[in-house]
Each structure stands twice: as structure tokens, then as C-alpha cells.
Amino acid sequence: MENQLTAEERQVLLKLARQAMEASVRGQPAPVVDLTALTDRLRQEGASFVTLTRRGELRGCIGTLEAYQSLAEDVCEHAMAAALHDYRFPPAQPNELSEIEIEISCLTPPKDLEYANPADLTRGLRPNIDGVTLFDGWRKATFLPQVWEKLPEPEAFLDHLCHKMGAEPELWRRRKLRVQTYQVEEFSE
Question: Is-above-0.70 flag for pTM?
């Protein structure tokens, strides 16, 4: 992935995410991001996902696929949302904060993946490189590239992604779906 963040920019984003998450969990107002104090890269529009883990287990993950605000503000927004609004988990509590670790994934713009049939689709995916989004009418779901670590076979990856979307796991074999891929720059505390 080109245009990588510097080590300092990564640390700034992790600090901002931590401050935003802790304030939201404690019921305090979100900290204001001083864009004038940030680098051009952090002020530019960017899409991110923030993943929270506690004792090695997923505790929340929320983000966006399309950039619509500065990368710094996007990370803050999703750190708060991952802590409080991931429907799979109850809102994080103040006594958990010291155990929660933050991972940030900065996304490249998504690109449509053209394919002719299911076998062509699985050959077109790049495990451990591509994040994948499936679209079926109004339904959609995405897996970050990190999910390949748990689901290394493209067929199982797509089955689980269909299930996440609320469809039958084998839907991608029976019907041509719209597919987009993207890559991430991932870093954590």
C-alpha cells in the first residue's frame, strides 16, 4: 500500500482514538480534534475501521468504507462507536478501559472486482491482502483483510461473509454479487 503513514502519524491516531474512546465510555464529550496541529495526511479525507479487543477477544469493530471526513476525525468517530455501538456487544464500561487494546485500519478506496463465475471470483481474491465487500440488493457486508488469518480459504471466507450479510452462506455460488476489494494499513497499540 502506498502513501503509508509515518510512525509519528500512527501514534497520533492511536492517541486520538484512545482519548475519544475513553471520553465516550465515561460519558464525557468527545475531544475536539485540532486539525491545524496535524499533518496533511491526517487532515485529508480517509476511511478507517477501529477494532477493539479485550484479553485477545473482539470487543467491538466499526468503521466506514468510503471517506467523508478527515482521517483523524474518522478514527475518533469509529473508536467511540466501536466502544458503545457495536450491536454484537454491550457498551464498554469504564472498568474495562485499561484492558481494551485499539487497532486501526486505514482503507484504500474500494474497487469493483469483475468476475465471470464463482471459480473466477475465488481466483480474483488475494488472501491476506484484500478486504472484501459483498453487495446483494440492499444488503452488504465486509471483512477486513485481517479476517483471512481466521478464514484462509476463499470459499470459507465468502461463505462467512454471506452469512454476515444475512444471506445463505452459499449465495455467492448461486448468484453473481457485486464485489469490491480494498487494502488496509493496519497498526495497533
Answer: yes
